[in-house]
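Record now logged for everyone:
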Amino acid sequence: MSKLTDSDILRALLDETNEFESQNENFEEESENDSDHLSIQSDINSEFEAELPCLESDSDDDIPLSELRQNRASYYTGKDGVTKWQKEQYRSNVRSRAENIITNLPGPKSVARNKMSPLQCFELFITDEMIDEIVNCTNEKISMQTISDHKKLETTKEEMKALFGLLFISGLVRSGRQSTIDLWSTDGTGMDIFRDTMSRNRFGFLLNNLRFDSTATRSERIQTDRLAPIRNIFVLFIKKCQDAYIPHENLTIDEELVAFRGRCSFRQYIPSKPAKYGIKIYSLVDSKTFYTLNMEIYCGKQHENSPFAVSNKPYDLVDRLVQCVSQSSRNVTMDNFFTSYETTENLLKNHKLTVVGTLRANKTCIPPVFKKNREVNSSMFGFQKDITIVSYVPRPRKMVYLMSSLHHDKEIDSATGSKQKPAVITFYNHTKSGVDMVDKLSRTYDVSRNSKRWPLTIFFALLNHAGINGMIIHMFNNGIEKNKTNLRGKFIRELGISLVKEHLNTRRQNQKLPKDLRTRISKYFGNISENLSEPPAKKPNTMQRCSKCPRKKDRKTKYSCKKCYTPICMEHADFFCQECGNFDTNDLN
């Protein structure tokens, strides 16, 4: 084992996602029709397009007197006429700024430091408390079903974990959207672990009845909370994420879209996202390890007088998301939907957090002179004591604007060569993709199944996030072996098997199941013959009632089935030689 490094984390998380197209393009690589936050969406934000006027004359005679005065002044004035930016940077301080000094080292907190196995790391986020609540709510739903008694079986915590394990295993083989008929197929194309764990009908029955709140009181709660069907589980999950981990110095705020095409009053359409239709979730993510710290579901405008009614303005949204890292001296990277002068000032003064983000061209804090045509690859800077603004021309008639409370000079990144990119832009490109990478990792081994119920879709997303966060904790606690590949796939495989093992152990002790099935289950425990149920002990020459004959016949027999040990008379028995008797149970179906 070796010490965990940044490159190790990236390799472990990304080595199995190479077939997915990268979504992290830099400024100069974007086409005119790109919908990344750095470029302006022509179909949505056309009013923000930063088109540049053509140069007509360099003579001072054609320049208004007000502009001449500003050109000769030591500062730029924003479009609002109030915000002023110094042309030259303030004197650099020798000492580090207080908002850049981190006192808590990143990594697992004390509650997570001794969690070594994938199952233990997963249970940091999907706890027994949460599973108990899900089991109770699911059983409440099952009890309301008007079906025959043999199907009306309540579930248990053990079986619920097995269900989650099968979801992870289906995601591992990327069969989350595949028909269960194929997964449970007995013609050699299916997977044994699905048939060994539970029947296909039971799997579908549990998913259909899976609930996360009390159905009896939902109609009352939903009057004041649109997220009532998933609220409690979602809040518990976020709390567990924050209790287990201290983030690195750079964080990312962005939106992700959980694919969903069913009926939902707050379903969104975002053409730039892979799913296009779905439920929008705002996330705060560690940009170095892709650990999710905080999330908020966009549910539109809540009902009046609701205790859950909050403002959906970017300023307020960012303020809520960063509460868990307030006063921690971190930096938050955001796109132009979230970034504004007011937001940057608020995070610096009230939360002791710096901001690096792109700006839309219509922001009134941007000086008009920053929007004038200039040479390609040229930059203009404006400075305040704590905030810097920069305008950069990546190609003709195209400008990008960034604001930073982390950078306070005119540094140009020499590694960009002739493009002469400011260090602010290089930093932004390096830290902007935290949420996008979480979304990409979720889609790589997605546990989601087709559903018309949006609470279930959100819960699938929580399982995906729990798998990613759990692996990050696992890597910190165990380190990474050299020359190992597909580490995340191995983590999910071990997690899935660990979740189903307890239920498998119960099934192999069930004498009513065929012996060959119980033998097959035993392979997950390392010893095929270990702990297999023995036939029930009985006294010599003891007669038992035939299980197949009607009760009124009261027919007694000394014979029993060699697979399930059920008493059976000669009328209901067939004869096989020893070679032919070694058949598979599926041949009888």
About this structure: The longest strand covers residues 250-259. Residues 20-60, 583-589 have pLDDT under 50 and may be disordered.
